């Protein structure tokens, strides 16, 4: 064996021996760790840092009653950069920062490219680890940004991170914005409207991903068994009709602007169900623009003013003290209670008028006299009646922020000798607009008081989870006889009283105007210059078969016009007119009760079978004495179409006057005649007399005309 070969074999043997020894050492170490130090390394393994990474759930959407989206979540992203990533060297960064800055400026257009460049370089020098490049980035923008210089290198080489979030948007802008509501992300976040009240339902349940820290500060998932899938939020189907909401919002805005008012609200509710179809709330900001910043219909407790007179007269009639035709002497329009003067609006004097007229003309003197004279010795009886209606309690609405009513009671702090007469006309108390609407809705609903409702259903991925129906607060607020009188009084306000400007020829309205003085918080009613006014109209329509109730409240009109019929009434009228015009089921069909057409149409003479088939299809009454004739003549007689035979004799020129061209040509050519035609419509004249021997005639001229031309 050669020396070279021996040398090679020796080296291979040494390498082999080394590998065997090294392998044995590893094996022995594994066995040692597995058995001798098992407990030690198990404890360390268990102590390895774990973290729970939440997986956000998709928030549910909010829909209108007809299925249009009112609020939804869309994915948005934040672009952030980590400038401590080692792979992103200075050479790479400074070579590409110009191109990146130009791309960012072009895509977002929110700042110049050189400003982007300065900010990026400053963050680079400061070694920012979580630098915000841009927020509120849409999905399409994010996809484009991923191809930009540096960003295309990804997270570990380029330091860029695209962090997903969701943003709540309302596709219909400010329509019912406050009622739809919002939530904030802080722990003590503000939650308002439907978003706030149904936050748990809409939010769903977030998932959870368990991760473990490995060497190199890297977290990895523990496995599928340690992941909890998120459960999406449920969808809310509201009662709001977007078309009516748009009308209400625009009508209210127009009137607020016209009168320079501070704020206002308008609510439309379905009488039988309590479903709120529109709810508009607008307030003037410091910049003079009106926005939905507060839900006044739900949250503002304020004096109801003259709208409360309905309650006063209802209780007086229920207790048998007055009837609708009783005469009340209102004198010269003023009266004093314990030295405090109370006057009728505009210093009017009505003299002796009926209880019906007291309500129609909204006489403060008349209502206060009825209540004070009959309840002054036992005011608690009157207040018990008020409390029985539930006006001193919240409605328990399905959204947060309901205002707390304030209605005093005899013997409690603040009750005085003038409390009873002043409360009878809607002062010394506070209720919300929705409470007033609920009361008048009960009058329209034959005495049944229904709780207002903003939500119809809860759905999950299209499947019904929960539905909400009408909730009865009070099955009967008064006797049937009193109810009919109250309905008559409400109609009288529009027909003969303070709201005659709302009267129209298409449908009747029932309701009540209200003009209340709002005292200054410090000086009360002492300084008239500080007193503001509140104009209200609340009612229902059509009065003879009520479908909807509505309240409009306008606060602090500043152009010296503040009466409810003038300031709030036009908003009610515009809403009511729009609803009536667009609700086909509120109109009687044009042909209702008719058994035949109003007018017998013009009918051509011609082929009997074709004509009778057409008349049968159109349901036109016919007097037919030519049932066996092939050709007939049509004429109108005694509001009916009369059909008589038209004889056609072979080899004689037929009579085709009154026929259409098709039938006329058929008969003439069947007789062997050549026909010349002028005009169009129905045959008015033929050049050859009917009955002439057709063999002696070469041609016939027919003149056509359109009937009535």
Helix-strand blueprint:
Blueprint: H1 3-36, H2 38-46, E1 50-55, E2 62-63, E3 69-81, H3 90-108, H4 113-125, E4 131-137, H5 139-145, H6 154-158, E5 160-169, H7 177-180, E6 182-183, E7 191-192, H8 193-197, H9 199-203, E8 207-214, E9 218-221, E10 227-228, E11 235-238, H10 242-259, E12 263-270, E13 276-284, E14 290-291, H11 296-299, H12 309-318, E15 327-329, E16 334-337, E17 340-343, E18 352-354, H13 355-360, H14 364-375, H15 379-388, E19 406-407, H16 419-424, E20 429-430, H17 433-444, E21 449-450, E22 455-460, E23 463-467, E24 472-474, H18 480-495, E25 510-518, E26 532-541, E27 548-555, H19 564-567, H20 569-582, E28 606-607, H21 608-617, E29 622-624, E30 631-637, E31 640-645, H22 661-670, E32 674-678, E33 682-686, E34 699-705
Parallel strand pairs: 2-11, 29-31, 32-34
Antiparallel strand pairs: 1-8, 2-3, 3-4, 3-5, 6-7, 8-9, 8-10, 11-22, 12-13, 12-27, 13-14, 15-18, 16-17, 19-20, 21-24, 22-23, 25-26, 26-27, 28-30, 30-31, 33-34
């Amino acid at each position: 064996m050669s020396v070279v070969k021996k040398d090679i074999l020796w080296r291979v043997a040494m390498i082999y021996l080394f590998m065997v020894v090294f392998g044995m050492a590893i094996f022995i170490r594994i066995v040692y760790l597995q058995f001798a130090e098992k407990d030690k390394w198990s404890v360390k393994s268990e102590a390895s840092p774990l973290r729970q990474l939440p997986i956000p759930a998709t928030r549910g959407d909010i829909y209108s009653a007809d299925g249009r989206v009112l609020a939804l979540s869309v994915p948005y992203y934040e672009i952030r950069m980590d400038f401590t990533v080692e792979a992103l060297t200075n050479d790479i960064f400074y070579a590409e920062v110009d191109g990146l800055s130009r791309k960012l400026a072009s895509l977002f257009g929110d700042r110049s490219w050189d400003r982007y460049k300065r900010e990026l370089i400053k963050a680079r020098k400061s070694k920012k680890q979580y630098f915000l490049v841009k927020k509120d980035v849409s999905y399409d923008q994010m996809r484009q940004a991923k191809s930009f210089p540096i960003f295309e290198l990804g997270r570990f080489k380029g330091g860029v991170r695209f962090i997903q979030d969701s943003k709540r948007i309302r596709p219909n802008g400010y329509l019912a914005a406050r009622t739809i509501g919002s939530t904030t992300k802080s722990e003590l976040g503000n939650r308002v409207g439907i978003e706030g009240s149904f936050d748990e339902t809409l939010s769903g349940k977030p998932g959870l991903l368990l991760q473990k820290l490995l060497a190199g500060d890297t977290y990895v998932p523990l496995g599928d068994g340690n992941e909890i899938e998120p459960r999406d939020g449920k969808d809310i189907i509201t009662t709001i009709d977007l078309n009516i909401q748009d009308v209400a919002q625009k009508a209210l805005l127009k009137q607020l602007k016209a009168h320079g008012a501070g704020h206002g609200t308008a609510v439309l509710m379905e009488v039988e169900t309590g479903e709120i179809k529109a709810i508009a709330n607008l307030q003037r900001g410091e910049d003079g623009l009106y926005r939905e910043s507060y839900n006044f219909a739900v949250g503002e407790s304020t004096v109801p003013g003259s709208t409360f007179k309905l309650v006063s007269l209802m209780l007086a009639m229920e207790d048998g003290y007055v009837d609708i035709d009783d005469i009340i002497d209102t004198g010269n329009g003023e009266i004093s209670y314990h030295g405090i003067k109370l006057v009728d609006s505009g210093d009017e004097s009505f003299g002796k008028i009926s209880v019906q007229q007291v309500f129609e003309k909204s006489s403060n003197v008349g209502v206060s006299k009825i209540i004070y004279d009959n309840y002054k010795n036992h005011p608690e009886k009157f207040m018990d009646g008020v409390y029985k209606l539930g006006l001193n309690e919240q409605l328990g609405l399905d959204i947060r922020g309901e205002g707390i009513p304030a209605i005093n009671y005899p013997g409690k702090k603040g009750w005085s000798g003038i409390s009873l007469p002043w409360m009878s006309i809607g002062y010394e108390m506070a209720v919300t607009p929705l409470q007033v609407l609920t009361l008048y809705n009960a009058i329209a609903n034959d005495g049944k008081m229904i709780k207002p409702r903003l939500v119809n259903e809860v759905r999950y991925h299209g499947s019904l989870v929960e539905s909400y129906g009408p909730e009865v607060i009070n099955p009967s607020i008064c006797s049937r006889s009193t109810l009919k009188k109250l309905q008559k009084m409400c109609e009288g306000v529009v027909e003969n009283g303070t709201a005659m400007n709302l009267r129209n020829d298409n449908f009747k309205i029932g309701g009540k105007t209200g003009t209340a003085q709002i005292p200054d918080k410090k000086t009360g009613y002492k300084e008239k210059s500080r007193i503001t006014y509140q104009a209200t109209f609340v009612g229902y329509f059509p009065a003879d078969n009520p479908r909807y109730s509505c309240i409009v409240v306008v606060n602090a009109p500043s152009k010296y016009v503040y009466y409810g019929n003038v300031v709030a009434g036009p908003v009610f009228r515009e809403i009511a007119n729009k609803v009536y015009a667009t609700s086909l089921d509120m109109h009687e069909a044009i042909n209702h009760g008719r058994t035949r057409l109003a007018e017998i149409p013009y009918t051509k003479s011609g082929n009997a079978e074709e004509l009778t088939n057409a008349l049968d299809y159109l349901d036109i009454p016919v007097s037919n004495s030519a049932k066996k004739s092939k050709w007939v003549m049509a004429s109108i007689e005694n509001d009916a179409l009369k059909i008589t035979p038209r004889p056609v004799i072979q080899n004689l020129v037929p009579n085709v006057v009154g026929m259409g061209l098709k039938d006329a040509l058929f008969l003439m050519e069947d007789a062997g005649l050549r026909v010349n035609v002028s005009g169009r419509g129905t045959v008015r004249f033929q050049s050859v007399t009917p009955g002439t021997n057709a063999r002696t005639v070469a041609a016939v001229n027919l003149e056509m005309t359109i009937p009535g031309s």
